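User: Continuing from earlier, I have the next pair ready.

Assistant: Great, send them over.

User: Here they are, in order.

Assistant: Folding the first of the pair now:
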Amino acid sequence: MAEHKHGSMDIREQEKTFVGFIRLTIWGAGISIGVLIFLALTNA
């Protein structure tokens, strides 16, 4: 079995995927909050 050296793996793709996931989550939360505010203002 090959020896594993800690920190030697290329994780650029994983980092890009994580950044994309965080960006999508922030956008989704912002849109959801915006829709809720819109609904609250138009329901009065």
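And the other member of the pair:
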Amino acid sequence: MQPFTLLIKPSGSDCNVDCTYCFYKCRPAEIGRGRQRMSEEVLEKLIKDYMQLRFPLAGFAWQGGEPTLMGLDFFKKAVDMQKRYGRSGQEVGNSLQTNAILLDENWCRFLQESKFLVGISIDGPKEMHDHYRIDHSGAGTWDRVMRAIDECRQFGVEFNILTLLNDVNVLHPDKVFDFLVGLGTRFLQFIPCVELDAAGGEVTDFSVTPEQYADFQCRILDRWVEYGPAKLSIRDFDSILSYYVTGRHTICTFDRQCSQYIVVEHQGDAYCCDFFVEPKWRLGSIMETPIEKLAACGVKRKFARNKTRLCSKCLVCRHLDICRGGCMKDRAPFDKDNFGRESYFCEAYKRFFDYAGPRFMQIAADINSGRLSREL
């Protein structure tokens, strides 16, 4: 069986902040609201079945909502179970995507000792971050996130940064870049926000436009090349660079098929993708069906094949091999069943690939010749 990663949402959509742009606010109510918690029974079943697949690297990506709402003891139990059900020589990778507000000395000691890779969500300097990332009382969260970052540094926790691009910070690529690099991390990830209003079905005001996204990416590329590609990893850029070096992408956005992971919700229900947690793409329950069967079932195969449903504009595009139509969620924002539409970001991708292609080719040539090492 082809190895896959688990994207686990132990607290479902439950969160301790109230971000204006949260994608759960644009989803139907039946996806879940309020307090949601994974039981120890579901946790043990999940870890036992997955570890016994004996993948060389067992990847657990803990996300939400906000996964730290589960409490520290939950993750200590998870690590103990991974050790109990693992096999000799089997490597385990844990990542935790968090708003970081609950991280303190005890959390940081555990995360460092257990070698968790922590992804911290921060949208830039204080005025940009606090514009949308607020708590349930309407107060900004930047100060609390920065305190948590200081704790991570103090205890040697490995962390990277996830920045959601919205209509505010996307206009200031230089300020965002300078601030994030100043945090001391060597790994950045930018995700463009595009959501539809749940009521009217129109693109929300906080979403980025294709033109804004192209401008941002081109400028960030300039800054990355100037700063030094060997010193800084940017997730999308790494995947494109991997394509130029090896012919293969490292992220599903530009891959040929969507099959790198499955999502497991707090009650054990499994889905194809975090952006398609809906009845049509439910694979089943890990409490009823072995996880390897869920990962190989017909629904999962059908979903993976949908990535190949490209519109005629894609089929004649000069960037087809490197783009592959982009993420399926951006192809069908107005019609969840029509994966054959062009991406919302089509024009942004074309502009960026035209602008960036020669530079990526040069960096790839430097890597292949040994003139550049990227051991980040």
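Worth noting for the second one:
The chain has 14 helices and ten strands. The mean pLDDT is 93.
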